[in-house]
Amino acid sequence: MKKLNGKNRVVALLRKEAYSRVELARATGLGKSALTKVTKALFDEGIIEEAQVAVKQSSEQGRGRPETLLQLVPNIKFSLCFYLTKQGVSSYLIDFTGKIHAANEVDWPVDPANHDIHVAYSTDVLLNIVKQEANVLCAQHSLTLDQLELISIATFGKVSQQDGIVVHSQFFQDTNVKLAEIIGECLGVTTKIFNVDYCCAFQLQQMYPEKESFISLCLGLGLGLGLCLDGQLVTGRLGSTLGIGHVNYEPNGKKCYCGAKGCTEAYVTSDAIIDEIESLRGLSISGNDVSEKMQSIKQLLSSGDVAAHRSIEKVSQAVGDILAQLMVTFDISTIFMSGDTAVLFHYLEQYIRQYLTSDKRYQTLLTKPKIIRVTDVKASVGGLIQLTNSQIVI
Ligand SMILES: [Zn+2]
After folding, report:
1. Which has more pLDDT, 109 or 4?
2. How far is the CA of 263 from the centre of ligand 1 (A)?
3. Mean pLDDT of 36-54
4. Dist. CA 317 → ligand 1 center (Å)
5. pLDDT at 66 over 80
């Protein structure tokens, strides 16, 4: 990761909350004169402003002492974020502080009820949506495209974040799509591409700063992985996302959409869970979409349905298998779980824990796992917004 200069370090802190000069000096480690120089430059550029005076309780004297706080100027430096889901594309017009000024959602141009996730789109389909939404959201705020700082896109799949290439994704017909370049050239705005699981891990890092090392699993459309080691988010080569979903779980097992057989992802996605329970029970699960179906499954589990329990136990074994390997490899015990299937957390957690404790390695190598459910369903969107702003260098 690039080392930030003084200005960007101050801005990164102020993005979280307002700080006093004393607190800024402590947090950045900058000396008084260096900090004064940095804040003056940021004032001159119209990036920061003084907030209302806060009265902080002084513990020694027992009386309040007024203190001037510094904050980022809102309503400047706008960017557009696009978040791709199975249903369609969510778009957000944000300012430099991370505030959302306008948002919209459009469905992919097919009936979602008949939409198979393995049906992908041409890059043009996304490009048209991005163009249309960018114009709509900007027009609402009397902005022109050339006033935007950045366009960012979060997608599932293997993404080379450094060079903005979507190596492969369920959403695209083509592989190695130079998405950042295509959108950047068409709209004339610098474009960055992120993987949704990286966005989620980035957000978790901000939400739980005390967790220096963690594994973040997103169970839903795919099996997403985020990894944080000693406070640093880990990526593959060229900032690529960590692809654990296609690691083999069962040789010659279930067919995966990638073409291989027995990939872990083929056992643990929300669609795989629904298929498994439906085939065991010989009945389809009620619900119009994945989240409604997950609620139905939750009800089946709480009523003690044997087939539902057997399916979730199987899913938990596949997830537990991946987790055990990661935990042993990286010596991590904190695990976050998010995604559509997290609604089944109570049961998944129980079975995963059961699987892990039955693992012989557990006795010597595995630290007692701490599995935490991420209840914020918009964690990845929050991460995308923060990541987008973190790319704007002052
Ligand atoms: Zn696969």
Report:
1. 109
2. 5
3. 87
4. 17
5. no
Q: What is the mean pLDDT of the chain?
A: 88
Give the distance (Å) from ligand 1 centre to CA of residue 75. Answer: 44
The CATH number of the domain covering residues in 211-374: 3.30.420.40
Closest C-alpha to 188, from 231, 145, 154: 145
Could you tell me where the DSSP H helices lie in the chain?
Answer: 6-14, 21-28, 32-44, 123-140, 179-187, 196-207, 265-268, 270-281, 290-302, 306-330, 345-358, 360-364, 379-390
Domain spans, the chain:
6-72, 79-199+380-390, 211-374
Closest CA relative to residue 272, chosen from 305, 306, 226, 317:
317
79-199+380-390 fold = Nucleotidyltransferase; domain 5 (3.30.420)
Tally of CB atoms within 10 A around 376: 13
d(CA 265, CA 250): 11
pLDDT digits (tens, 9 = 90+) for 127-170: 999 999 999 999 999 999 999 999 999 998 889 999 999 998 88
What does the chain come to in residues?
394
CATH of 6-72, one of 2.30.290.10, 1.10.10.60, 2.60.120.10, 1.10.10.10: 1.10.10.10
Q: How far is the CA of 219 from the centre of ligand 1 (A)?
A: 15
Q: How far is the CA of 244 from the centre of ligand 1 (A)?
A: 9
CA of 268 to the centre of ligand 1 (A): 12
CA angle 313, 213, 365 (to 5 degrees): 60
Q: How many angstroms separate the CA atoms of 271 and 17, rounded? A: 40
Convert the pLDDT of each residue in 332-391 to its tens digit.
989 999 988 888 999 999 999 888 888 776 666 667 889 999 988 889 999 999 999 999
- Ligand 1 centroid distance, CA of 226 (Å): 18
272 CA to centre of ligand 1 in angstroms:
13
Same-fold call for 6-72 versus 211-374: no
